[in-house]
Amino acid sequence: MNDRPAGFVIRAANQAEDFTGENALIFSLAIKAGPKFRTIGGEDFGLSALFRSLANDDLCRSIDLAKSFKNDSPRAATTLAIASALLEKQATKTSNN
Q1: Which of 11, 76, 84, 94, CA to CA, is 20 to 30 A from 36?
Q2: Bridge partners, 7 (sequence order)
Q3: What is the pTM for the complete model shown?
């Protein structure tokens, strides 16, 4: 996983005091052509969905990134998402046996 985009998301989330991990986060990126605004979150793509997917690909990295949030809400939301991914994986394993 490329840490640069994750770093942008975590820095932006840490700067937004009221960001919970489930609401949308809008931030700007400075590029040569001028500022670009990006949105992370919302109903279709929240941190929970992102971290569930990441936990399935790289569990240790997802845990490290979840610890990077300074505010309790996004840190808790991402930790619960990781736990959910682990429980789903275990349930799938159990049902296949």
Answers
A1: 76
A2: none
A3: 0.70
**CA–CA distance, 23 with 45 (Å, rounded to integer):** 10
List the chain pLDDT tens, one digit each, 97 residues.
555 667 777 888 888 887 777 666 666 667 778 777 766 656 556 778 888 888 998 999 999 999 999 989 889 989 999 999 999 998 988 888 7
CA atoms within 13 A on the CB side of 84: 14
- Report the distance separating Cα 13 and Cα 81, nearest Å: 17
Cα(29)–Cα(37) distance, rounded to whole angstroms? 6
Name 49's Cβ contacts closer than 8 Å, sequence gap at least 6. Answer: 81
Integer-rounded Cα radius of gyration of the chain: 15
